[in-house]
Amino acid sequence: MRIHTGLGYDVHRLVEGRELWLCGVRLEHTRGLLGHSDADVAIHALCDALLGAAALGDIGHLFPDNDPQYKGIDSKILLREVVRRIGSEGWTVQNVDVTITAQAPKIAPHIPQMRETLAAILGIPTADVSVKATTTERLGFEGRKEGISALATALLTQ
Ligand code: MG
After folding, report:
1. 34 C-alpha to center of ligand 1: Å?
2. pTM of the model
3. Residue 72 CA to ligand 1 centre (angstroms)
4. SS3 of the chain: helix, strand, coil, percent, to 5
């Protein structure tokens, strides 16, 4: 059996007048993340972890941010396409782990819904989908609420 791990990382800027989407869930907040798509930083990191494990490039290569067909797109659609591509290469997702770094809003109340949302797209049990959140003790761009970052890992087998 081949066992591959992948790592993904992404950052988006927080601005006024945008919806905040994280792990496919909309959170009530005064600001949202800026991006060509819905800017779901956590799904973007997860896509890169999955693509990285399968050595299939990265999300920016697959879905260029100057392509009008991806403008404002729901990142869940991008994740579905990534899952389809790694599946067509014979890979099976075993587990994923996502960490969101944000000073605000509080992420914890939304984690169960985030895990269920990702598990449904990945086609794996919720028990195999971890979503965690942390702050940076007000340090750095996340701590100043200028942006939100996300890290993800994925384990694939073939
Ligand atoms: Mg991104």
Report:
1. 9
2. 0.97
3. 12
4. 35, 30, 35
